[in-house]
User: What shape does this take?
Amino acid sequence: MSSSNPTDDGGDKGPAETVTHVSGTGIPIRGNDIDTDQIIPARFMKVVTFDGLGQFSFFDQRFTDDDEEKEHPMNEDRFRDASVMVVNANFGCGSSREHAPQALMRWGVDAIVGESFAEIFAGNCLALGVPTVTADHETVSEIQAWVDAHPQETIDVDVEGETVTYGDTTVDVTVDDAQRKALVEGVWDTTALMGANGNAVRETADSLPYVTGDGV
Amino acid sequence: MSDGTLYDKVWENHAVTTLPTGQTQLFVGLHLIHEVTSPQAFGMLRERGVDVAFPERTHATVDHIVPTADQSRPYADAAAEEMMSELEENVRDSGIEFSDPTSGDQGIVHVIGPEQGMTQPGMTVVCGDSHTSTHGAFGALAFGIGTSQIRDVLATGCVAMEKKDVRKIEVTGELGDCVEAKDVILEIIRRLGTDGGVGYVYEYAGEAIESLDMEGRMSICNMSIEGGARAGYVNPDETTYEWLRDTDAFRDDPEKFERLKPYWESVASDDDAEYDDVVTIDGSSLEPVVTWGTTPGQGVGISEPIPHPEDLPEDKRDTARRAQEHMRVTPGETMEGYEVDVAFLGSCTNARLADLRRAARLVKGREVDPDVRAMVVPGSQRVQTAAEAEGLDDVFREAGFDWRNAGCSMCLGMNEDQLEGDEACASSSNRNFVGRQGSKDGRTVLMNPRMVAAAAVTGHVTDVRELPEREVDGEVEA
Ligand code: SF4
Assistant: This one.
């Protein structure tokens, strides 16, 4: 797998890296409305760190009650090193659990191409430096079919140029403006960005009647 | 672009600056935290050597993992105990108030904020929990955030966000007999879709919404996220102020109440506010809604047939087929008569005092079907205490319900309250995703609390309006 960012150890990225493009082999995860309870079942969230969550990605889709492997792309050898996930509509709907993108990232996912994403999920991905780029149903279906047929070949997600290239084909995709700017300029560490504005924060707080009136 | 709405005003009041990403840095008025999504954020803070910026604007509770039967420490479940200890340590180190189980104030985060008067109109409220939208019932701008954003808020008192569009959902007319707020929101999601709200904040308005009590408004705002909207709100009015007047925040300080009221009034949407979209729903035409599938958008009126997948829009068919297979329902039939093994009355959607009262009235003088495992899990310790003072616990117990301690419980099955195998559950919660209630073969049917009570006593999904009358305390009740 090759990637423009050094996340393959599964850990967090440094605070101010740029993510202009991601390339790697693909994995298709088909279906609309795939919710966060499917991506990471709640029982695996009884933890106080995100370490080791990767192995539980899509757990109930991948394993039977007796821990035997079921048919699922994430169980297939040919997709085992994939880093670009290709999904359908409303992916990541449901809870705000960052455990969901954390699990996918720690499994090895560096970028997700899909028809649409739930907002909190996309925001959580951005906070991890994982782009979520979108295209229409036909385009996504074609990419999924291509990935199925070419599991060893590389897809390139150009975040800056808003394209996805697979084989000889390059298609236009959409990257949300704020997400593109944040990733391309390496300004997705919002804690650092906002922490620099302490005085302005105080001013805003002091202008609010419920803050000056008394605490909560 | 919307203009003059509550959303525009509250946004404007809390905007600190525009970030290089184009996002707005928004000041957070109330940050609620719980044990599942905050520990990693505190870890990140420690890594950076940063302190909590506004501990006095932060409040903690424990809800997801608390056992609802035996709450003695250490908890029987070691993982739950570890999460609890971690939270205790974090709040102690940072000087954050904690409604812990020994305080009598503990409960589901979206129940305790409003009941303690922390949630107020014109505030920004965030929590690492998608159902934070609940607090919008008070005219607050409230949204769920991820753990990295919790880190942001802990470290800076702010969150980075992009402004959304505003869709006004006007529910006209008067709701019919036994039709509740839950039915209104299930209907909205069914019509607009689970992703219909992406990019929008929902403003709920119209006669049917305005005539709801605060509990009902919370049930509606709670499920905004199930319709894809990050936030939902109702403009504050006299009903809102009446609730607030009687909370911890103002009970002993009526002057503070009067000082803040003009601000609350000022943030309500203007009469001539502009919206990006308006949807109107005739509230008087609704009936109780239940889900037949595995997303909250797969709902149907209790007397209507379950749809045939081929009659649905193309992009919904596959999901519908899979859902019907999982749920073992037959298109063309109604949900009435669908057998249930479990009845769960709980969650941040429908476990407030008003919900329990309505369900108890229905249960009184009846018995839970012998094949049904029925439980009531109050939304908070205060709800529990108030309900017990009214004798509701006895009503439920006598009927055969298990009366438990406050927490999220079987809404997501992170404690011992879980579905087993392929059990079917009539649930007053908000999500019917596969695996949500703790068993991946479990089957969840979402419905309003009275419908849950009705299913508990009959053993199957039942139109509560058709339950035969019975005599209670010399009076005849439905
Ligand atoms: S009751 Fe359910 S939906 Fe509400 S906060 Fe708890 S787990 Fe989440």
Q: What stands out?
A: Residues 78-94 of chain B form the longest helix (17 residues). The domain at 6-266 of chain B is CATH 3.30.499.10 (Aconitase; domain 3).
